[in-house]
Amino acid sequence: MGDMRTSPADPFDSPLETGLRALVVLEAMYPRACDLSEMTWYDHLVVNTADIADRDGGEGPRSLHPATPGRHDALNIRRQAVEASLMLMHRVHLVEVRHCEDGIRYASGETTPSFLDALQAPYMLRLKDRARWLASRFEGMDAADIAAVVDRHVGLWAVQFRSGEGDRP
């Protein structure tokens, strides 16, 4: 019997679920285009806002997902899932892929706002609120500054991404 979590029919952490989170984040970040490392960080932080909010004096929303032990360890495997989700959203024309001097970046597509406006489930509304908070939290910061915040609040996994697969200059 295979792992039920990786079944194509299982929506939990599937490319579709991860892709919807990516769309919400990219729309909140617009016009900023983000690289794969940033999107991996945001995929974690948008549902675990307390990882940075609580450490900044409690200024920010509660996490959407419970603070489970080992959630930071799982981040090392999230990168591939986030990349697959971004490619899925690109194939359906909801994410733009930009080839920039400093690597590949992802941005909200032209039809993303109207697509997301149609998603009004309570969970999606809370996710959108957290994504807007995250965007305001990191507004005006460059990737190195964001990486430092993530590293300081979440742990050493940020350093691993920065020296990882070369999507950083």
UniProtKB/TrEMBL annotation:
Domain of life: Bacteria
InterPro entries referenced in this protein's UniProt entry, alphabetically: ABC-3C_MC2
Pfam families xref list: MC2
Protein name: Threonine efflux protein
Source organism of the structure: Methylobacterium pseudosasicola
